[in-house]
Amino acid sequence: MFLPFFQTLREAGVPVSLREYLSFLEGMSAGLVTYDVEGFYYLARTAMVKDERHLDRFDRAFSTAFQGLEQIGVEQVLEALDLPDDWLRKMAEKHMTPEEMAEIEALGGFDKLMETLKQRLEEQKGRHQGGNKWVGTAGTSPFGAYGYNPEGVRIGQDGSRHQRAVKVWDKREFRNLDDSVELGTRNIKVALKRLRRWARDGAHEELDLDETIRATADHGYLDVKTRPERRNAVKVLLFLDAGGSMDPFVKVVEELFSAARSEFKHLESYYFHNCLYEGVWRDNARRWTDQTPTWEVLNTYGPDYKCIFVGDASMSPYEILHPGGANEHWNAETGEVWLRRAREQWPDHLWINPLPEPHWQYTQSVGIIGQIFDARMVPMTLEGIDRGMRVLT
Known about the structure:
The protein is α/β, with parallel strands linked by helices. The chain contains 16 helices and 13 strands. Strands 8-7-11-12-13 form a five-stranded parallel sheet, with helices on one face. Strands 1-2-3-4 form a four-stranded parallel sheet, with no helix packed on it. A two-stranded antiparallel ribbon has the order 5-6. Helix 1 crosses helix 4 and helix 9 (185-192) packs parallel to helix 16 (382-392). It is extended.
């Protein structure tokens, strides 16, 4: 019965194996979920998705495979509708207000509604559109899609229209989480997980259960032992391009900064504009009055830091290759010189570009900076960040 679902997953690019599919079938045979669409979704996802990057593909395949009962045979629908009466009553109490329950009772009751639905499915042969009796679309029957009835059962309709359906058989909310989409804060945290080196430091605040048990057994009384929390010991130096062509990417860069701030205990950040020159700053509102000399940054943070530049690298080539090429001030040394100094100081370096990767070939400056960074430039997608974290490790 679920073989088409398995095939849909494979066609959608979800690398589900036969073993994982059989595990899913074992879960269904064991009765882990019964008449519970939510539980069925999570069981299938848990059994057949092993990488968060494939969650969006799974959601889309799930939606395609189970997009509406109007596309399923009558026998399968009847099997799916073979629901225990107590389950139906509990679902009604959970999802409907007392006023809605009273309306249904006045019109014949929930049991009558479900009984009529089963009866009509037994009588109906094929798809039906319009009308006021059969299961179909664009009518006034209580059962179907894109019609209207104050106590209906919505079947095969994408989203609500009148907010009056008593039961929604195929409503499901999906979220995007694919390795080709731009990132949100949560997705960035997923990608940054690869850049971790655990170490225990700080105050002894975390309970050490093993040592507590051992000390208690040795001493004959409760002897609580604590230890420092385990933290990510990786040090990150973040340079963020601000202003100009980066304005459309403010939101996604803010999300990257937020995720990095929560992920790395040792994080230092500075702003620059277009290319690295002799000065950087921590506050854009004070960029002209409170700059930090780039030489000072180079001499402050050791080579154990992971250096990450974030910018679209879109500018005039003169801003990279010529003295005086900067568009806001006179730079005595070229941007290329400063970028190469940064590369030499921090061997583990990376450039993250929010500009979609297919567009890079149309901007000369992107290619120049890509060459300076020895092709260590990645797009700001989940796959790109994941690839970049591999480079830094």
